[in-house]
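Let us work through a complete example step by step.
Step 1: write down the sequence.
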Amino acid sequence: MSRIGRLPIPVPTGVDVTLDGHFITVKGPRGQLSRELAPELNVVREDGVLRVERPTDDKRARELHGLTRTLVANMVAGVTTGFRKGLEITGVGYRAQLVGKRLQLNLGYSHPIEIEPPEGISFEVETPTRLAVVGNDKEQVGHMAAKVRQMRKPEPYKGKGVRYSGEVIRRKAGKAGKIGGKK
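Step 2: predict the structure and record it as tokens.
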């Protein structure tokens, strides 16, 4: 039995969960999320908690048990508190700013890069070198943060680029220079 899949998902007050076959819709104070779940599993609501159950013990159902429980739990957390992924920019002249809802990045290229946020995602720029991607859907927030990081990945020699908050970049030693002098 999946250790994650067995855990109940508490549904806080103010959150409405609608189950329609293998389609689940979660409405809360921050919005609404919907997802189609795998047909091998069932989601059951009882006494203010959700449980993900697998009717059979075949390989595919066992594989999807913990995943499905985590996806549903992330939907409930998304409509109540939301998700946030922090990014840091390192480098001389590298900075971020908001232009309307779009994010404008100056990352050492000959032109600024503008990123349009998809529906349900927003950017927050705390300082010119710290920003965050905020939204209700954890998958979308992570994907958008990865797209921003992709614009200039941190390089291993000086560490310049866009990194996740708290990410550790393994640094390499640069050129050692000539050793031994002239011959």
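Step 3: interpret the result. The radius of gyration is 22 Å.
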